[in-house]
Amino acid sequence: MTEMLSIWTEKYRPNKFEEVFGQDEIVKRVKNLTNSLNIPHMLFAGSAGTGKSTLAIIVAKELFKEYWKENYLELNASDARGIDVIRQEVKNFARTKSLGSVPFKIIFLDEADALTKEAQQALRRTMENYTNTCRFILSCNYSSKIIDPIQSRCVVFRFKLLEFKDIEKVIKRIAENEKLNIEEKGVKALYEGSEGDCRRAINLIQASASISPNITEGIVNILLSNAKPKDIKIVLDYALAGDFEKSREKLLEVMLKESVSGTDIIKAIQKEIWNLSIDAELKVKLTEKTGEVEFRLVEGSDEFIQLESLLASFVLAGLGKKL
User: Fold this and answer.
1) 3 state SS for 234-297
2) Which of 226, 232, 239, 245 has its CA 20 to 30 A from that of 197?
3) CA distance linking residue 139 with residue 43, whole number of Å
């Protein structure tokens, strides 16, 4: 499945600056730097699927044209995390002269926040020693995990999650090219399922298209294995009405029949809290309780017991008891 899903991800990867959606200010600045033919070291920080790797490849293609593959080295730091990678692969590539008129090569280190501290220190020295022959583009989810000396040597660009309008553009483009019919609720479900991750949205479209060319909200929800909002609303309505038994039965039905995990249930409950017809102060308290239960689940507590505990809090809230 993973190999199949990667086909569309590559097929619809942008090849020009103008095709990158949702990062207009970053694209504008990087394009100006690329056109100057003298780019600095850069650090791309942000969530997955927001265009970091794609933008690095576009920079290489714009600079080196037909020689971009010879002048561009991509390494995934999560696969090779140690100091030996920096000392061997990176140094060997950085010390050789580039092909073409551009006087430097580009090394792209994906998931650089996975590098060990020792490897990052070695990378810092490499960045200093080979500035004339090489430029580094680092990509990470959390810039705080990159040591300060490296951050100070880079221009930092912070990528944001894509908004609905950006994901919608990608969805409509793919639907038109692949002759798909995606209903309006299906587009919204794809966006919510992707959570602003364009790569995940494309994978969801391809998986949905393998089931039917007519993509509906129901098909997307089946693939996501998410609890339906209307089912979670029923669970919470029973609880707020003081009927713990029915609330618990409905919750078990959703989890067992739909094969939804406890953490996914928690996320669905957290979203649905703000659609309930209750006081804002009570919403805040219930959100706090939801956060506590989510933490316990992450730490390894029993899903059913913790979720029943959360439902009990909703019952008490519905009865006007102090939480």
Assistant:
1) HHHHHHHCCCHHHHHHHHHHHHHHCCCCHHHHHHHHHHHHCCCCCCHHHHHHHHHHHHHHHHHH
2) 232
3) 6
143 touches 43 (CB < 8 A):
yes
- 56-73 tens-digit pLDDT: 999 999 999 999 999 999
- Torsion, CA 113, CA 119, CA 124, CA 128, rounded to 10: -130
- Measure the CA–CA gap between 14 and 32, rounded to whole angstroms: 18
How wide is the angle at C-alpha 126 spanned by C-alphas 125 and 132, nearest 5°?
115
Assign residue 225 a region (left: φ > 0; alpha: ψ between -120 and 50; beta: otherwise).
left
pLDDT tens digits, 89-111: 788 888 888 888 888 999 999 98
Provide the 8-state DSSP code for 114. G
Q: Give CA–CA dist 1/8, Å, rounded.
A: 12
Distance of alpha carbon 208 from alpha carbon 222, whole angstroms: 9
pTM metric for this prediction:
0.76
Architecture of 229-318 per CATH? Up-down Bundle (1.20)
How far is Cα 228 from Cα 221, in angstroms, rounded to an integer? 7
| Contact indicator for 194, 228 with CB cutoff of 8 Å | no
Contact between residue 167 and residue 189 where contact means Cβ atoms under 8 Å apart: no
- Is 191:164 a contact under the CB 8 Å cutoff? yes
